[in-house]
Amino acid sequence: MKDIIFTFHEGSPKYKQVYERFKRWIEQGELLPGEQLPSIRRLADSLQVSRNTTLMAYEQLMAEGYIQGESRRGYFVNRMEPLFLREAPSRSVRPASPEPSVTVDFRAGAVDQAHFPLKAWRRMLNRVLAEKESFLYGDPFGERRLREQITKYLFQSRGVSADPDAIIIGSSTQQMLLQLGHVLREDHSAVAVEDPGYDGAWEAFRFHSFGIRTLPVHETGIDLSHLDRTDAGVAYVTPSHQSPLGVSMTIRQRQALLNWAASREGYVIEDDYDSEFRYTGKPFPALAAIDSSRVVYLGNFSKSFLPGIRLGYMVLPPGLLDRYRTRFHNFETTASLPNQLAMARFMEDGEWSRHIKRMRLVYKRKMMQLISVLDRLFGGQVTMVGKESGLFLLIKVHLPYTEEELIRRAALQGVRVYPSSAYFICNHPDRPMIKLGFSSLSAEEIGLGAELLKKAWV
């Protein structure tokens, strides 16, 4: 393939522009299946960018299946199914309304690639793959080296005192809830969930035919008064950073919830999904730090490190641990063994704590910038919800549009924003709420995205 040269535009990271250009060429058939791409070095030299820029673009293309890398040979275009190819419209047919290109994507759940410790993580993986241990099946409940590191981390960061043997490693929060549900269903038929809340958890509970009972959550906090009027014996909550409203549960509420669980001989499932990123004040102690006998503690590495690593964990109380181990000791782990061992090394070498400290500052700056620019551009036309922590911001929009209209109008300006309606069961808000993730965006993209939203909505 000849050297590639094109002009970059402002407002979008260069790696993203390289990725989008190659993606378009592949989808439009300008790059054919099996065709070899320039090497990382050659492409970087052609475009006059850093090798890290071209590497990140290629890795994104590989992650989405557009290309594949072959050892010592290079990168090659994959064969795409017709469903995923954008065929050029027939000359006799005029396309109705072409989908506008996306300039800024406020997608939550992505990471800041510019600050990702790629070299350190690659070094850990290379060390792990040189060991015989990584070629085995591994412990069905998770590698002990990683469980020991999680034990130390939870005690230092969240005040949770956990035995490594009480920790279960899995691939995701939802997957662990599915397995946990097998055990909880023996004694309980209904579970109380936050409304609004994490819909992925609801689906896991419904899979086991749990009755779903709702606990209304407002911008001022959770309403626990409904608990005593339900038949639930299990409650699933996100007390440190409620998903999606961002409020935190007070100490009094935490104690009341634990007392309820004890009175029902039930359990509280505490999803501490992004407790690392609190920007104002000190975080409240985890529920599991107050009473470990009635709390199942859930954590993961997806929000704070890398979604694709597929690593999560839960700490089981004594009343569930033996039953869980008996039920699942003949099942293989769902988490990647090399990723477990690499993360254990990453934590042992202090890279994890350095990464968290660095990203807390990075994400705090992004949150503050998003709040500032929205306040400047919209003033009282939007209410910002969940400003103290997390990797996204909810905005309640006080304009004469529905959620669908807000999303459509933003898309016409090249901005992708996301709905919140899927998180509500009965407790619907009085105005539409839009979810804005900022973790993967640069400062320039945040500012540009807000300007374009102003143009779209006002």
Whole-angstrom Rg: 24 Å
Question: How would you classify the helix and strand content by structural class?
Answer: alpha/beta
Mean pLDDT: 88
The main pleated sheet reads as:
8 strands, mixed
How many DSSP-defined strands? Answer: 16
Number of domains: 3
The termini sit apart by 47 Å
What is the CATH superfamily label of the largest domain? Type I PLP-dependent aspartate aminotransferase-like (Major domain)
Which CATH top level class of the largest domain fits? Alpha Beta
Shape: globular
**What is the helix tally?**
14
Helix-residue proportion: 25-40%
GO molecular function, one term: transaminase activity
Keywords: Aminotransferase, DNA-binding, Pyridoxal phosphate, Transcription, Transcription regulation, Transferase
Domain HTH gntR-type: 12-80
Cofactor: pyridoxal 5'-phosphate
